[in-house]
Amino acid sequence: MKYRFINKDNGFTFIELLIYVAIFSIIIGVVVSFIFWLVQSNIKAKVIRETMDNAERIMRTITKEIKEAKSIYSPTSNATQISLETTQYLPDGETASYIDFYLCESRFCFKKESQDPSYLTSDNVEIVNLVFTQIGASSIKIDLTVDYMDIDGKPEYISSISLSSTVSLRLH
User: Fold this and answer.
1) Contact of 148 with 124, CB cutoff 8 Å
2) pLDDT given at position 75
3) pTM (two decimals)
C-alpha cells in the first residue's frame, strides 16, 4: 500500500491571497485613473481646438471681407458692429452691396444684403468681447475674445481665446 503525502505548500495561504488582491487592486486603480485622465485630456484638447477654430474662422472671414471691401460704411459702424460696402458683380454691370458683421446675443453673425443673417460660430462657444475700432478712413482694428460655454463647471470645459488684428482696405 502506497501512502500519499499531502504537501501543504501547493496552495495559497490567506496572507498571500490578500497580497495578490491588493497588488491587483492597485494595478486596476492605476489603469482606471489613467483612462479617466486620458478622457479628460481628450475633452480639453477638443474644447481648445473648437474655441480656436471658431475664433480663427471669424477673423479670417472679417479680414477677407474688409480687404475686398470698397469702403467702410460708417453710419451703421460702431464698437460691436461694422458694415462694409462691397462691389457685387452682376451680368448687367456692377453695383454696390453691403455686408454687416455683428453680435447676435453671444454669437457672431454676418449678413449680406438681401440674405438672411448667418452664424459664424458654433453653438458651443460664445463671444465675450468684440470691438471694431476704425483707424483712419481705411483701416479697422478688431479685438475678439471667444469662450467655450462651460455648462457643467468642469475645468476641462474651460477655454478662452483672444485675438487682435488690424486690417486695411485694398484701394482699388
Assistant:
1) yes
2) 45
3) 0.76
